[in-house]
Structures are given as structure tokens and as C-alpha cells.
């Protein structure tokens, strides 16, 4: 028996709830939102699928869940330049979330931006083991990286992403069979930084890409896939980094993160990762 809670059922949270419902990935789904009218509407919309599912809207059930997806808070809009600019708005939401999950021993998936800083804060504030506090964003960044590589005719096998889910994301090219020259790397990095904005401007926010990849992460946990994924987690010396949550290669299964993989980076990637870690340490010091 697996129970899944989703805290915050706006665009992405609601789509994750929908995917989880139609695939029946969990035996029980619990959704919660601070806006009662939205919560009621999302519950009814899910029930109107006609799918036989145990669906609840009880905040008290959060701590009874095997997995909680934290997707509450203010989303990014065209007026918000970077995800990091959301820290002051969304940190109080993360603090309230930690109050609601006191003594929780399950797995938290952090989506709310700035994701890395919020994931660091939730792990620190709640006391959840770092292996069970997983920041989502790297899978989406990797999907975008592969899209930009394939547009240029590259075989995307071996491509990876690390760093911040934001301006300081780090595309990793050194694992690919074909060499990607520095000018192309810089072009792709620039495109990745701006990848979400056309979607945000056109439809008000990214939905399908994040939701599908969050669902894939949930599935990897529930099915104990021991899957290699780019996720944000709190480092304690890995990659010579501590004091922040940052995206690195990890193996994910039923108990959360089972292993942090320390892979080789070339000089271009190492410099970018060092900048990302420095930026996130500064951001995490503010929480």
C-alpha cells in the first residue's frame, strides 16, 4: 500500500495529481491547498474522471503519506527574472509546510522555487534525513538539454545536468561520445537558462514537462527502481561541497536517495559547477 500527498495543487501539482490518478500509481492520493475553492475544484475534477481512487483532502494525512510532493507557493511569472527571486515569497510557505510535517519520516519531493534553497531549508528545518529530501528540477533541465542537443544533430547519450535549477545550471557534455565545442556549449547553456520563459509567457506557466518528470521520479521511488537521476540533495563533502542543496547524479529508490555519484567533470563543467555551488551556498545562508 502506497500513499502519496501533494501539497499545493496549482498548475504543476494538479497535473501530478492527475497523472498519479490515471496511472493509479498510489493506493491513496491526498491533495491539499491553502485556497479552499481551488482545492475543492481540483478534487471534483479528479473524481469526475470516473476512476475508482481513494482521494482525500485532509492536511492531517500529510504525515501519514509515504511521499509528499511540495509544490505550494508563488509560481514564476514573466515579471520574475530568475527562480531565486522567489525566495522571499516562498520561504514562508516552506516554513509552514515544515510545521505541518513535524516528525515526518517519509520522502519529500521539493518542486517549489527556488527549489534548491527550499529543499535545503526543508531538510534543515524538518530534520528529515537528507536521503529522503529530494529536490526536483534536474530531470526537466536534462530533457531541455537533450532537446537543444538533438536540434543540432548530436547524439544525446551521455549528456547530463548538474548545478542549480536556475541560472547556474550546469550542462555536462563530457560523457558524450561526440565532443561539443565551447562556443556550442555556451549557446546551449544560454538557451537552457531561458527555456521556460516562452512557455510562461505563452500559457502562464510550465506544466507538462515538470509534471511528467515529477511523476517519473515518484514512479522510481514507489517501484524501487534504483534509477540514476539528476536530483538536488544536501551535500556533505561530495564534490567538495557542503552548506547547500544542489543537483548531482543520484540513485533513487524506495528509501529515497541510495547513492550520490561523484562523476568526472572537465574544466569547463567544473568551473560552472563551482560557480553554481558558490551561488547556492550564498542563497542557502539566507534561509
Automatic annotation (TrEMBL):
User: Which molecular function term from Gene Ontology is one that the record holds?
Assistant: L-lactate dehydrogenase (NAD+) activity
Alphabetized Pfam families for the sequence: Ldh_1_C (PF02866), Ldh_1_N (PF00056)
Domain Lactate/malate dehydrogenase N-terminal: start-end pairs: 4-135
Does the keyword section mention Protein biosynthesis? no
- Provide the active-site residues from the annotation: 165 (proton acceptor)
> Where along the sequence do coiled-coil regions lie?
none
| Domain Lactate/malate dehydrogenase C-terminal stretches | 139-282
**Where is substrate annotated to bind?**
76, 83, 113, 144
Q: Provide the alphabetized UniProt keywords.
A: NAD, Oxidoreductase, Tricarboxylic acid cycle
Q: Which EC numbers does the record give?
A: 1.1.1.37
Known catalysed reaction(s)?
Answer: (S)-malate + NAD(+) = oxaloacetate + NADH + H(+)
Q: What class of enzyme is it?
A: oxidoreductase
Q: Which domain of life is it from?
A: Archaea
One GO term of the biological process aspect = tricarboxylic acid cycle
Residue positions annotated to bind NAD(+) are 8-13, 33, 90, 111-113
Recorded family membership: Belongs to the LDH/MDH superfamily.
Functional note: Catalyzes the reversible oxidation of malate to oxaloacetate.
Output the PANTHER family linked to this UniProt entry.
Answer: L-2-HYDROXYCARBOXYLATE DEHYDROGENASE (NAD(P)(+)), L-LACTATE DEHYDROGENASE
Q: What is this protein called?
A: malate dehydrogenase
Q: Which organism is it from?
A: Methanochimaera problematica
Amino acid at each position: 500500500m502506497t500513499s502519496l500527498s501533494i501539497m499545493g495543487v496549482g498548475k504543476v501539482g494538479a497535473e501530478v495529481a492527475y497523472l498519479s490518478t490515471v496511472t493509479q500509481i498510489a493506493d491513496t492520493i491526498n491533495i491539499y491547498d491553502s485556497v479552499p475553492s481551488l482545492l475543492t475544484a481540483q478534487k471534483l475534477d479528479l473524481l469526475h474522471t470516473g476512476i475508482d481512487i481513494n482521494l482525500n483532502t485532509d492536511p492531517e494525512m500529510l504525515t501519514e503519506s509515504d511521499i509528499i510532493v511540495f509544490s505550494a507557493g508563488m509560481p514564476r511569472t514573466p515579471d520574475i527574472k530568475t527562480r531565486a527571486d522567489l525566495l522571499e515569497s516562498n520561504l514562508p510557505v516552506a516554513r509552514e509546510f515544515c510545521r505541518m510535517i513535524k516528525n515526518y519520516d517519509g520522502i519529500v519531493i521539493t518542486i517549489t522555487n527556488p527549489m534548491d534553497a527550499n529543499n535545503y531549508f526543508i531538510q534543515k528545518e524538518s530534520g528529515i534525513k537528507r536521503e529522503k529530501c529530494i529536490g526536483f528540477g534536474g530531470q526537466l533541465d536534462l530533457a531541455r538539454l537533450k532537446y537543444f542537443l538533438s536540434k543540432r544533430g548530436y547524439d544525446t547519450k551521455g549528456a547530463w545536468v548538474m548545478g542549480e535549477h536556475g541560472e547556474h545550471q550546469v550542462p555536462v557534455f563530457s560523457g558524450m561520445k561526440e565532443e561539443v565545442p565551447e562556443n556550442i556549449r555556451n549557446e546551449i547553456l544560454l538557451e537552457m537558462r531561458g527555456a521556460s520563459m516562452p512557455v510562461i509567457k505563452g500559457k502562464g506557466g510550465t506544466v507538462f514537462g515538470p509534471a511528467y518528470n515529477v511523476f517519473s521520479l515518484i514512479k522510481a521511488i514507489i517501484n524501487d527502481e534504483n534509477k540514476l537521476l539528476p536530483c538536488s540533495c544536501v551535500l556533505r563533502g561530495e564534490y567538495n561541497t557542503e552548506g547547500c542543496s544542489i543537483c548531482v547524479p543520484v540513485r533513487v529508490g524506495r528509501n529515497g536517495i541510495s547513492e550520490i555519484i561523484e562523476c568526472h567533470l572537465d574544466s569547463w563543467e567544473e568551473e560552472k559547477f563551482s560557480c553554481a555551488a558558490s551561488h547556492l551556498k550564498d542563497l542557502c545562508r539566507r534561509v
